[in-house]
Specification:
Largest sheet: 7 strands, antiparallel
Number of strands: 7
Shape: globular
Strand content: 15-25%
Strand order of the largest sheet: 2-1-4-5-6-7-3
Length: about 140
């Protein structure tokens, strides 16, 4: 569980930094990325998974808010990855994270920036559940 929490926290911070640094053309005021892609980890067979893309500003905003509120997990983390997350900005830059939510509504999410996999971030339970619902809507 600590692994997942840390992963989500890193994703949150990295997304916040990336999202705020270069606003996209269609959402200049909000500074949102133009696309967030979640690609399932093929080595994680314990839970069902489908790739998901978020290109609507309202969905991207929800993802970014959860990421920005994530909290750093102390120490070096050991974790498994449910998704590879790519955050594409209007300037063409891409930030990549390991991202895990799981299916359990009682678990926090985990975010880890692929550039520093020893630091993880936890996504609060309420935000993790909101992200689970968002993914569910896109995969149903």
């Amino acid at each position: 569980m600590v692994k997942y929490v840390g992963f989500l926290m890193v994703l949150f911070i990295a997304t916040f930094i990336t999202g705020c640094s270069q606003p996209n053309e269609s959402n200049t005021e909000e500074g949102l990325p133009v696309l967030i892609t979640l690609t399932c980890n093929p080595n994680l067979a314990s839970e069902p998974c489908q790739d998901v893309e978020f290109d609507r500003p309202d969905e991207i905003q929800i993802m970014m808010e959860a990421i920005h509120k994530a909290e750093r997990i102390p120490g070096i983390i050991d974790y498994g990855t449910q998704y590879k997350m790519s955050i594409n900005n209007a300037d063409g830059s891409v930030t990549r994270y390991d991202f895990s939510l799981g299916m359990d509504p009682k678990m926090q999410g985990l975010l880890v920036n692929e550039e520093d996999t020893h630091i993880g971030y936890s996504i609060a339970l309420e935000d993790a559940n909101q992200l689970r619902r968002l993914i569910q809507r896109r995969t149903d």
